[in-house]
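[INFO] parsing input record for ATP synthase subunit b, chloroplastic
[DEBUG] input buffer:
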Amino acid sequence: MKNITDSFVSAGHWPSVGSFEFNTDILATNPINLSVVLSVLIFFGKGVLNDLLDKRKQRILSTIRNSEELRRGAIEQLEKARARLRKVEVEADEYRTNGYSEIEREKVNLINATCDSLKRLENLKNETLFFEQQRAINQVRQQVFQQALQRALETLNNCFNSELHFRTISANIGILGSVEEITD
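[DEBUG] output buffer:
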């Protein structure tokens, strides 16, 4: 640890005024480089990710609002159905002697149809919410993956020079040659 602090503090490592030197001490330069790269990634990536998440949040909120409107419509239909049910019950009292069983069946059918409609609307709302959430998650994943892949490719392209590339290819050819000799 003392060598690292000495590389920063020591006057022998500081270039004189008007000259430029590369610091080849890997232990001294890597933490600095990593902190600069991480700071830049956090600074610029945070805004992009926040924007993406805000857009997804707005879409999900609008979907929830739409679902709430559907729910309100279903409640209105339920109130209408209840009003109709009350009307049917009044008519049932009037016609009780003539067709009580028929009116009772109508009532049950009306209640079942209303319940079925409410269940379908609730299921539709839940499916829509789930679908939107999954779509939002998948879009964010895809965008993060694409950005990471693009940055990795840029880093690789910036790091590889022709000599390093040639050495890598030669080493891989040597490995394949030794594998081929073993299989023969």
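[INFO] The chain has four helices and no strands.
[INFO] shutting down worker
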